[in-house]
């Protein structure tokens, strides 16, 4: 029985690895960043609370985020082992998701994250938050160890260790969300 279970696990792992590698082989190369672009790299986790009959969900990944002055950017999502599984590109004209299923276009980053997760993530504000600052285009208010912006509490208490935590409380209309990031570059 144990040998059969091990063989099944190995087959499942080999299949999952094959799918991940196949998905990555179809991703286009990332756009060349402008000379004035900023880049952040690290690990991130996103946890969605259970809500309105939907179970809790979450994922962890390695990321590389590049943002050019203006409204253009690129976000690469990789497995903890470094295999790229998806990339997001955006400009002021819209956002595109490239993954193993091909390219999907969205009007903006909010629509993209809502389509994928059922919730809007603060992807446009994230570069500012990773620098320990509120997005200057949105109102914010200071908190003891960070700030609040657009319904999110951004905890900078471990910012000197390159760590960020952002939470959005659950309401009747939306899930609670916890985002943790640790920068490596």
Descriptive overview:
There is one protein chain. The chain is of the alpha+beta class and 185 residues long. It has a single domain, classed as Lipoprotein localisation LolA/LolB/LppX (outer membrane lipoprotein receptor (LolB), chain A, Clam), CATH 2.50.20. Helix content is 21%, strand content 39%. It has three helices and eleven strands; from the N terminus they run H-E-E-E-E-E-E-H-H-E-E-E-E-E. An eleven-stranded antiparallel sheet has the order 6-5-4-3-2-1-11-10-9-8-7. Strand 3 and strand 4 form a beta hairpin. The longest helix is centred in the first third of the chain and has 24 residues. The protein is globular. The N terminus is likely disordered.
In summary, what is this structure?
By secondary structure, the protein is an alpha+beta fold. The chain is 21% helix and 39% strand.
Describe the SSE topology.
Elements: H1 2-25, E1 38-48, E2 57-67, E3 73-78, E4 84-91, E5 94-99, E6 102-106, H2 109-117, H3 126-130, E7 140-143, E8 146-149, E9 152-155, E10 163-168, E11 177-183
Antiparallel strand pairs: 1-2, 1-11, 2-3, 3-4, 4-5, 5-6, 7-8, 8-9, 9-10, 10-11
Helix content estimate? 10-25%
User: What is the chain-wise order of helices and strands?
Assistant: HEEEEEEHHEEEEE
Number of extended strands: 11
Give me the CATH architecture, please: Clam
Count the domains.
Answer: 1
Strand proportion: 35-45%
CATH level-4 homologous superfamily: Lipoprotein localisation LolA/LolB/LppX
Structural class call reads alpha+beta
**Widest sheet: strand ordering:** 6-5-4-3-2-1-11-10-9-8-7
Largest pleated sheet? 11 strands, antiparallel
Bulk shape: globular
Q: Could you tell me the mean pLDDT?
A: 84
Helices, by number, come to: 3
What name does CATH use for the topology? outer membrane lipoprotein receptor (LolB), chain A
CATH level 1 name: Mainly Beta
Separation of the first and last Cα atoms? 46 Å
Radius of gyration: 18 Å
Q: Which stretches of 5+ consecutive residues score pLDDT under 50?
A: 1-25
